[in-house]
Amino acid sequence: MSNKNKSRRRAPASQARAGQARTSPARTSQAAAGQDGDISQAEADAIVRDVLSKLWEGVASGDPLRAELETATCMAFPYVLGQRDPADIESFIDTVLVKGAVRRRNPDGAALLRLLMTLGTPATRRAASRALAELTGEGIYPPEWVTEIGKVTPGQAWRRYDVFGDDEAIAVTFSYGEAEHGIVVQVDLAGLPVATTIGVSSDGAKLIEIISGNNEEFDRSEQISLAEARGRMLRPLDRAGRDESPKLSPSSIAYLPVARSRVRRLPEGDGGPQTVYTAADRVAAVEEFMASPEAAEAVAADEASTRFWAEVLTGYSGRIPGEPPDQVGPRKLAHILLGHVPNTFVLTPAQRDHLEPAAAAWVRWSAARRELGETGTAVLMEQLPRVLSRFGEAYDDPDAAAIRGYASGLATSAADVSWLSDSVGRRMFALPIPEQHAPLDLADPADRHRLVAEEFGACTPPPGLTSEEFVEAAYGVIEELWRDEDNPTYQTASRLFADGVSRHDIIHRLAGSPAPTVGSSVIR
Questions:
Q1: Containing H/E element for 186?
Q2: What is the DSSP string of 187-217?
Q3: Are 152 and 291 within 8 A, CB to CB?
Q4: 163-200, pLDDT tens digit by residue?
């Protein structure tokens, strides 16, 4: 699909921002950061003062929405300056906002702490709660209006989506009393569903008008239940802002905690998809394709390779419970053939040679099955050769070859993609790929052992163990994590990680050492 069509389908969230609240949360930060975000310390200090000034104006206004947005803007400031380390971000929030609120020793400072308790991470909420207890212990209480923070009343929800299934935008209205506002979340469905753009509008009615009207050729819109809106936004918002997710704009980062707090106000009822597709549905779809007129020529040329590609394309398309096993769009097609396949499957020469006819047949079958018509089919068929022209380079990339080692022994064309993704994620946690890794075969235990030795060989071993013995103990832990999730080692590691312990420290603890005293250069 052309860039023009892509941007057109992504319009709802960006259009909604035109009607956002009077104070634009990331405007000052964006202007200061410039195109590359490279600013001097003096400029950064000046921006912090400016942002904090707007924060205290927002708190003093007594307007809950404005106060939330200004607080979220300050919380997002480290991201604007390029900081991604959670510890650095928490340190900034604790030093500048939590301790800054305490230093004011007045109701506005107490109000900010209540805002942080609503919008912050668990660590921020704990720090703000302790600080608020300190102020209230001195008889300093927040103003009465803060009791309304976050206690919004949900209104209506709409979904705007493209017929190919590449993305969607969910808009929901909320009210503080009679004052209505709305949030809109753009969700990329090509990979794991993740929020890519987040907007807040002070005009809820205008937001719904934008989402529900003026559909482009391949856009559709529908009103959905509040529970379904929660189901469609919750996980994508949870994934947003992580290192592996698409980079959010400064304004989206600022709106993220507000959007998350709003989703928590939506009902938890049966908000899942109306139809849930199972492994049996995927198998049936493959058989339907193999018997279809579209597949006849490809099957006659190489039945086994045609089935392989049909299972790969159908399996990825139906990996999310609510997505039918023929759901593919221009961006998802690129994601499958330039990301999922090169990073997952070791292909035979026959499978590589047969990719083009098999994929072309499957795409035509998918378009016919979904009744996309001539225009929709043409969009997909025009995209396919562009993707295939880049496939060889993507598959032969040394990084892709190394990543394929994580799926060793797991990746079959019929494997459940969600299970496979979780399994690869577990293995990547057990043994992250280092920046300098070529040549590397993670399917080879010897190469895994070498990486463990490089990471843990420089660490101080626990009493009673030599460095060599500690490396072997660490290797044993990582092999347990690598093997499967149904073992005590993985369960313990998961609990420690949920408690905020770093991966490297977790391996140390499980290998018999309370904490590392010497680090290494391997990515952790």
A1: strand 179-188
A2: EE-SSS-EEEEEEEES-HHHHHHHHHSS--T
A3: no
A4: 999 999 999 999 999 999 999 999 999 988 999 999 99
